From TrEMBL:
UniProt KW NADP keyword: no
Transmembrane helix as UniProt keyword: yes
Protein name: DUF1232 domain-containing protein
Residues in DUF1232 domain copies: 34-69
One of the record's GO cellular component terms: endomembrane system
Organism annotation: Stutzerimonas degradans
Domain of life: Bacteria
Amino acid sequence: MMLDDLRRWARLLKRQVMVLWFACRHPRTPWLPKLIALCVVAYALSPIDLIPDFIPVLGYLDDLLLLPLGIWLALRLMPTALLEECRQQALAWEAQQTPRPVNRVAAGVIVLIWLGLLAWLWHLYAASPAGL
C-alpha cells in the first residue's frame, strides 16, 4: 500500500513539473512565478542532482523537500486560469507518453557549482599553513 502511495506521489510530482514547464513557456505567466518555476523546472529536469543521491540522507533531501516546496510555491503564485490551461497541456503531454525534456544547461550549472566548491576547498587547503 505504501509503495502505491509513493508511486502516485511521484507521478503527481512529475505532472506538476510539466505543468510548471508549460507555465514557463506561457507568455501570460507573471515574472515572479515564472522565475521560481524556471528554477524548479531546470533543477527537476536536470540529469544531475545538486546533492548526489549516494550521500546518505542529504542525497534525497532535495527530492523529498526542496523540489516539492519549489513546486508548491510556484503553483501558489500562478494565476488560476493560467494554471488550469497549463494543467490541461500537461495532461495531454502525459497522454501522448512523450519523453520528458532534459535540461542540460541546469546540469552544466550544477557541475560548475561543484567545481567551484572543489576549487574553493583546494584554495583553503593550499592556503593553510600545514596543508590541513
